[in-house]
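Format notes (please read before filing issues)

Several people have asked whether sequences and C-alpha cells are stored in separate files. They are not. Every record keeps both together, in the order shown below: the sequence lines, then the C-alpha cell lines. Line labels are part of the format and must not be stripped during preprocessing.
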Amino acid sequence: MAGPIEMGTGTRSMLMPARNRSLRFSTTEIRHLILGTVLVTAAGVSFLIGNAFSPLSLIVATVIFAMGFILHELAHKYVAQRYGLWAEFRVNTMGVILTAISVVSPLKFIAPGAVVISGFADKDRMGWTAVAGPIVNIVITISLLVTVPVLGSTSIGLAVLYGAAINAFLALFNLIPFAIFDGRKVYVWNRRYWAILFIVALVLTAYTYILLGL
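Then the structure lines:
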C-alpha cells in the first residue's frame, strides 16, 4: 500500500476538469486489486492466530481488513481521477513477496502495490491524492473504536478492535515520510498536514495495541 506513483507529473497543471466523476476500472486493475486484497487480508488475519474467534468474528475481521485496503487504494484513485489523471492500482513483485512473507512473519510489511498515476499535475493535486488513503484508514479506525464499547468483550468486539488496530497501523505505515510511501508526498506538499495525521495515526496505533495487549 505504498503511495501513489506519479508518472509524468509537472509543476503546472495542464488538466481539464474531469467530466466523469465515477470510478473507472480496467480488467487488469481488477485482477491486481483482487491479488492485493487477498495478500493484505491474509497478513491482517495472521494477527489473529492464537486467539479464540468464532467463525462469524473471523468473517467480520476479514471484511474489515479487506475494506481497509480496498478503500485506501480507491481513495487515491478517486481523487486522482477527479483531477483528470489516469490512475490504476498495480501490484509489484517485491511488494507481493514482502506482503506474502508478512503472513507468516511477526514483522509486517503490508504493501503489495500502489496506485499508478499518469498525467500532469501540480504539487497540490498530488498532495491531496496521496493524503486521501491514510485519511480513509484513520476514519475507519475511529469509526470502529466507537463501536467497540457497544460490542463489549465479545469475540466480535475483539475482531473489530483488531480491525481498528490494522487500519491504524496501515495509516501510520503509509505516512512514513520516505521513499515511495504516501507520507513522503504529503510531507513535501504540506508538513503541517503530515505532522497532524502522523501524530493521530501514531496515537491510534498505540491506543489500539495497548487495548489488545500487544
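For reference, the curators noted about this record: Residues 5-212 form one domain. The chain has one domain: 5-212.
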